[in-house]
Amino acid sequence: MTDNQDLQGEVAGLLLAAGGGRRLGGRPKALLPHRGRPLVEYAAGVLRAAGCGRLHVVLGARSDEVRARAELGDCVLVDNPDWAAGMGSSLRAGLASLAGTGARAALVSLVDQPGIGPAAVARVLAAYEDEKSLVSAAYDGVRGHPVLFGAARWAGIAETATGDRGARAYLRAHEAEIRLVECADVAEPYDIDTEADLSHLE
After folding, report:
1. Which has the closest alpha carbon to 148: 83, 79, 98, 86?
2. Is 68 helix (H, G, I), strand (E, B) or coil?
3. What's the pTM value of the predicted model, to 2 decimals?
């Protein structure tokens, strides 16, 4: 367990925000309005408030519009031209963008989970130990987001991250090594996937 202030240089925040919102009529989730700003801006702010010093944001669908409308000036913006292939391609692009930055771990969050705020992210961040760390938020014991991957695991994750599965295959294969951090008391892990889910946005 480490103080979050000490982690700013070691753990990078990695926000996956490339999806096209197919079930939302083709509205990219990054651009959905939440609290008066694009959702991607809100999600980046959550990572920042939790203590992530370096932030990489993976963009895809309508990335030019996202860049124009969202204030992400202190973030490294990573374009994923293969975003339509699914979340796996965004995770690979994001991890690749962290190579050579000095980051020893990546804390990965999804743009479409605004019910997960800084308190939950900070708990996962605080569980970081070293480059072999494998940490996941849990909700009533069920694994969810965000997840933290030590740098020693990035290559293995990238190998198995295909389609919309993201790191699912890697996490299944290394289940016994995952440190679960319970967050159900401070966050709600719903996704903004359908028109009905838009009611969660403010």
Report:
1. 98
2. helix
3. 0.94
